[in-house]
Amino acid sequence: MDNNMPVISAKNLNLWYGDFKALKGISLDVGEREITALIGPSGCGKSTFLRCLNRLEIPTGGSIKFEGVEVDDDHIDSVRQKMGMVFQHFNLFPHKTVLQNITMAPVTLKKKTAAAAKEQAMALLERIGLADKANEFPNMLSGGQKQRIAIVRALAMDPEVMLFDEPTSALDPEMVGEVLDLMRDLAKEGMTMAVVTHEMGFAREVADRVVFMADGKILEEGVPEELFDRPKDPRLQDFLSKVL
Ligand code: ADP
Ligand code: MG
Fold first, then answer.
1. Which residues of the chain have pLDDT under 70?
2. How far apart are CA 36 and CA 210, in angstroms?
C-alpha cells in the first residue's frame, strides 16, 4: 500500500433525510495511526458522518474510500471487518455471555476456530482486568465494564481502524476514566481512530487533529492546541465557551 494513502478518505459527502440535509459536503482524510477527534453541537451530523464510514447510513452523494477501495455495497463486508465501531450505548448482545459477545464475530465472519477465538477473547479480557466476567451476562456489569467489553469485542476482529461514537456519554462520571484509559492505550499502540467525543480534555491530549462540525459541515480543523486555544470560527468559539 502507498504509505501516504489515507486509510479513510471521505470526499464531499452529502446525506439528506428527505429535505433535511444532515451532511453538507464533508471531506475528511484519516491517515494511518492518526487519532481524529470530532466535536460539535448535538445534532450537527457527527454520528451520521461516522455511520456513513461503515455504511450504516448510505450517503446521498460523495464518496468514501477505505484504503483506496470505494465503500459501496460490493466492498462493505470486507471494509466492516477492518473497521471496529463502538457506540454510546454499548450494544452488547444481552442474551449472550461476555465471552460469546467477543467470540461471535471472529468465528462467524473471520472463520476463526472456537478455541482460537476463545483464547484471544480471554487474553483481551485479561488485558482489561475482566477475565472473571467471561461467563457473566452484560446486565451483571457496570456501564464502564460494558463499554470496555464493547471495545475489546471490536478489537477481537483485529480492526485496522476504530470508530467511537461518544463512547463515554452514557456513563456515570466515575466510569469515564476507565474507558478513556483504554482508548488512550489503543492510541499509544498506534491504532487509527476517529472519535466523536464531548471529552475535550481527552481530545486535547490524545487527538492528533480535532475537527469541529456544525450544521452538517466541517467549520474548522487543526491540531488540538490551535483549535482549542486559538479558535477562529465564531461558532467554534461559542461552542468552546459552553463546553470548556
Ligand atoms: P450528532 O451525532 O452530531 O448529534 P446526528 O448525526 O445524530 O447528530 O444527527 C444529525 C441530524 O440529522 C440531526 O438533526 C438529526 O435529528 C437528524 N437525523 C439523524 N438521523 C435521522 C433520521 N433517520 N431521519 C431524519 N433525521 C435524522
Ligand atoms: Mg451523535
1. 1-3
2. 6
